[in-house]
Design a protein that fits this description.
Elements (H helix, E strand, L loop, with lengths): L1 E7 L1 E4 L4 E9 L4 E9 L6 E7 L4 E3 L7 E6 L4 E6 L8 E9 L1 E4 L3 E6 L1
Parallel strand pairs: 2-11
Antiparallel strand pairs: 1-3, 3-8, 4-5, 4-9, 5-6, 7-8, 9-10, 9-11
Length: about 110
């Protein structure tokens, strides 16, 4: 099993920044991809960004140029730096660890006010 613990998130005004962190523990060898999805009220969960063990990154078009994902393999931690936040970025952000099985964090609320 893999356990994921998220931190960060909160309330910020439009144009502001937040940083999310997600630390993995347990059967780390099972993980290839780590990343973030989000789910806004009434909407389906959607990809935000992922990064694999080799450093290959994938971003949703809606966050390109504003969000930056990074990964510290030594600490088994993935980060999401979110800049120039918009109200439409408001959602619960879920950390994920994908590989031999899919694992999810508990979710972190990000609220962007106008």
């Amino acid at each position: 099993q893999v356990q994921l613990v998220e931190s960060g998130g909160g309330l910020v005004q439009a144009g502001g920044s937040l940083r999310l962190s997600c630390a993995a523990s347990g059967s780390i060898f099972k993980i290839n991809v780590m990343g973030w999805y989000r789910q806004a009220p009434g909407k389906e969960r959607e990809l935000v960004a992922t990064i694999n063990r080799g450093g290959t990154i994938n971003y949703a078009d809606s966050v390109k140029g504003r969000f930056t994902i990074s990964r510290d393999n030594a600490k088994n931690t993935v980060y999401l730096q979110m800049n120039s936040l918009k109200p439409e970025d408001t959602a619960v952000y879920y950390c994920c660890a994908l590989g031999v099985g899919d694992y999810w964090g508990q979710g972190a609320q990000v609220t962007v006010s106008t």
